[in-house]
Amino acid sequence: MTDTDFRTLRISRAGGIATITIYNPSVNVLDVPLMSEIRSIFLFLRDDPNARVIVF
Q: By its UniProt entry, which Gene3D superfamilies does this protein fall under (predicted)?
């Protein structure tokens, strides 16, 4: 899995900080696919030793 595998979320990284942004146009509503991706992104970042802080 990579940073670009997510359809409704965007990740930016700098200095050990991973910032997650919801990208679910047009209203950024929490739907089932987005909730699934939120779970997946936290599991993805949990295993990344370079992501010491997650900002959501």
A: 2-enoyl-CoA Hydratase, Chain A, domain 1
> What band does 24 get if pLDDT is binned at 50, 70 and 90?
confident
Calpha distance 8→23 (Å, rounded): 5
The residue assigned the tokens 């997946």 is 40
Q: What whole-number distance in Å separates Cα of residue 36 and Cα of residue 13?
A: 21
In whole angstroms, give the CA distance from residue 54 to residue 52: 7
pLDDT band at 27 (very low <50, low <70, confident <90, very high): confident
Cα 16 versus chain centre, distance:
14
